[in-house]
Specification:
single chain, binds manganese (II) ion, alpha/beta, binds ligand LP5, Purple Acid Phosphatase, chain A, domain 2
């Protein structure tokens, strides 16, 4: 864990935008959000699943399709104005240093303990705390294995794309056999992570169940903030939002187009 990270001032945090070729309205809403972040925040942290699937930095940096070029441009413009920190999610865990450098962003390892004007907070995508889902945790261990990642990244792009499509399909099928509780974070895993970091506040995404939960930590009161996902193309009402952190506290906001 990076114990030294600190960001003073107003920090905005968002996650689960799931950018891809099929979500132009979501992308537009998110780019408008980025413009507002550049004007009103002193730093922006994205907590993973920024992209619907990431199959390697080379894919983005060599010949990006138009939607990806637009996304990279908006992120680059943001990073040129305020610090942009990225934590990867379960869809874009293959984001690497080459991407971070090309954007001028900082790729940060989770969980991140961050000193803020609202006190220390712990930041993570959230999938790591879904310990009631052993099939996912097995999958996660495999795809986070360095040599397996290297092998995957050495494959031709077409094959990588096909494997990613297949993994997404398998994942969707697997959802049908899982309860909502299995796909949520485990209270004990959260309590352990907060205790290890010496924090009383966790902010995460992944579950797409925006909320503020009170958590009990050995007699102390802690809080778990859950970010929403962004969906402006295939859902009515549309959804998307962020959390602001500053000297006045931690607040959840909905993005409206
Ligand atoms: O993503 P979502 O919301 O549907 O479900 C997640 C969990 N699923 C995943 C899998 C991703 O969707 C796939 C992303 C592909 C990215 C490209 C990389 C390609 C591989 C790179 C290899 C180095 O994260 C889902 C959880 C759910 O969140 C809630 O927490 O339940 O977990 C699963 O569905 C796991 C399944 O239960 C079992 C895994 C099936 C996939 C097998 C494919 C293996 C491919 C391995 C290649 C080496
Ligand atoms: Mn996720």
């Amino acid at each position: 864990m990076d114990d030294t990270a600190a960001l003073p001032g107003t920090i905005w945090i968002a996650s689960d935008i799931h950018l891809g070729a099929a979500v132009p309205r979501t992308a537009s809403a998110f780019y408008a959000f980025l413009a507002q972040a550049r004007a009103q925040a002193q730093a922006l942290i994205l907590l993973g699943d920024i992209f619907d699937a990431w199959i390697g930095d080379d894919h983005a940096l060599d010949h990006p399709p138009a939607w990806l070029q637009a996304a990279l441009g908006a992120l680059r413009q943001t990073a040129a104005t305020i610090p942009l920190w990225l934590i990867s999610g379960n869809r874009d865990f293959l984001m690497g240093e080459a991407l971070a450098q090309a954007l001028g962003a900082r790729l940060v390892r989770a969980p991140l303990r961050l000193a803020t004007d609202a006190g220390p907070i712990l930041l993570a995508h959230g999938d790591e705390y879904c310990t009631d889902d052993p099939a996912y945790q097995r999958f996660r261990r495999i795809v986070h294995t360095r040599w397996i990642q290297r092998l995957f990244l050495a494959l031709p792009l077409q094959l990588r794309r096909a494997i990613a499509r297949w993994a997404r399909q398998r994942s969707r099928q697997a959802h049908g056999h899982k309860t909502l509780q299995m796909m949520d974070v485990n209270a004990q895993a959260v309590a352990q992570a907060l205790a290890a970091a010496g924090c009383l506040v966790l902010i995460h995404g992944h579950t797409h169940r925006p909320a503020v939960h009170r958590v009990s930590l050995n007699g102390h009161e802690g809080w778990r903030y859950v970010l929403p996902d962004w969906e402006f193309d295939h859902a009515q009402p549309v959804r998307g939002g962020w959390i602001s952190v500053d000297g006045e506290g931690i607040r959840a906001h909905q993005w409206r187009d």
